[in-house]
Every structure is written in structure tokens, then in C-alpha cells.
Predict the structure.
Amino acid sequence: MITAGCERLGIEVPIIQAPLGGLVSPALAAAVSNAGGLGTLALWGADIQALRQQVRETRALTTKPFAVNLNLDFPQEERLDACLQEGVPVISFFWRDPSGLVTRAKAGGATVLHTVSTAAEAGHAVESGVDVIIAQGWEAGGHVRGKVATMALIPAVVDKVGPVPVFAAGGIADGRGLAAALALGASGAWIGTRFLASSEVPIHPYYRERVLQATEDDTVYLDELFDIGWPKAPHRVLRNSTVAAWEAAGRPATGKRPGEGDVVATSKSRGPIVRYRPAPPAADAEGDIDALALYAGQSVALVNKRQPAAEIVSEIVGEAQAILLGLARQLGN
């Protein structure tokens, strides 16, 4: 299962753990890396001291490569410099044109990933020096850059930028999805929703239970709803009380929505959380948890049990291997 993308990243299996709306602990990232994949810390909103602390905690838990995700809709120069000073081996960029920071990241010794939603974006990213492309389909949970489904997007991106490795994101939560991504020409899969059920992810128990009970039809794509502090950033979440009240009110625009400005929850790690803030419920959240942004992708129906992250990685890889070997035998006959 070692692909060109694995070789480029220095990992043993073709799985990258997504940033999960910021709900990633050093324990989770390190567990995925120790299992042979690439764990990812979501530190794009962290202060520099907290960023350094989480990187150091992760490094204390693993000797394997891991990544830090930086959202380019916000200034990231200082955080990137801190990551490079701390020796972060992989930098993952998202949302905006990465060309202004790619050279700096690579000069600092990092391998650079960038998430795209079209083949044209992928081509531009590669021209700017990006080492590995993450092609995100519309099925993905959390913030979604484009509107093309994974099945159509991956081969288009692969054809555009090959032989640069491409990892498929969106709608992948088991070995069938990984095998399909590989068949489409991808080097592996970027997986988020499945890791919401990992033992190491610090999410609220109610959020985890909603994920475990959800069907493939329980998510909704929104151009702009959970947008306070990050406007014009489409996203996919589980339907909840906030979504239902907004829809019942006729989907009013920002500034005219039901309960706008109300503090619906608090969190020691995130402070007061007002309705429509793009903050999913961490383990320490208290209040109206169902009102918060419950990010999840359309693959959520495939997530039905809590497991250690290493077991999730092993299970997905094992399923994909069995599928691919089975297909090879069928074709051989």
C-alpha cells in the first residue's frame, strides 16, 4: 500500500487525517502517524505559544512525520515561521492561493500540501511548488471549497498534475472508499469524518453520538450559516436545531437570522460560543450543544463505532487491500 504519495510524505500507508474543524489533539495526530498514516494538527487559529506547545507534545508522542494545517483565509506568516522553527515536517495549506507561502515553507525544509476543488486550482498550486495535492470533493464535511463530487474531481486533478501525488478527500470513510480513490489514480485518502469516532479526538460526547447515529442524508451543505468570524466559507454539517430554525424562518441573510448573537454554549478552550459561530463542540463545551456547528461529511453513515485511531487506520487499509486483491484475482480469472 505504499504509493508515490506515501513515499513523498515519508509515511507507510496512504491515509492522511483531516483537521476536523480544529478538534485535533496531539494524541490523535500522533496516533495516526504512529499507525503509518499522516496525522494533522489544526493550528491555524492558535496563538504562537499554544502552537509551539502542541507541536512539541506531538513530537514527544511520535517520531513519524505529521502535518500542521494552516487556513489561508487568515494571516499565517507568523504561524508558518513558528512551525518551521519547530521542525514541522509537513505543512498543509487550505482555502486561498498558497503561492505566497510555499517557497518559504519549502525553504524551511517542509513538504507542502494544498487542498483544491478544481483541476485548475491544482495546476496553479503545483506551478507554485506544492508537493502533494489534496483534491476535496463536495461530499466532504467541514469547510468545503468547491462543488464537484469526488468521483468526478479526482481523475480530473490526477490528469492535470500527474505525476504529482494527489490524495482524495470527501466521502471516504472505509476501505471501499480508499480502494476507489486508488482506482481513480489517487495516491491515497484524506479522511476526516471517520476520525470523529476515534478514542483520541477531544469532541463532546453528544457530537460523537450524533455522528454514530447519522445516515448519509443527515448532512446539509450550506453556502453561509456558521459564518461568524469566517464569512463566505461554505461548509457541511449535521442538521440540528440551528439549521432547522433558520430554514423555518425562510433562510434569512446574516444579521437577520433567529437568535443571532445569542451565546448558546461556553468552552474553557474556546470561550463563549455564539449561535452561528463556526466552532464545533469540544469535549469541554457546556450548554446547547445541538445548536453548534456539527461538522460531518456524507460518509457519516459509514461511521458506527468508537475505535482507537490506530485501529481505524489499520481497518481501512486492511479492507482496501482485501478489495484490491479480490479484484486482481477476479481479473486474473
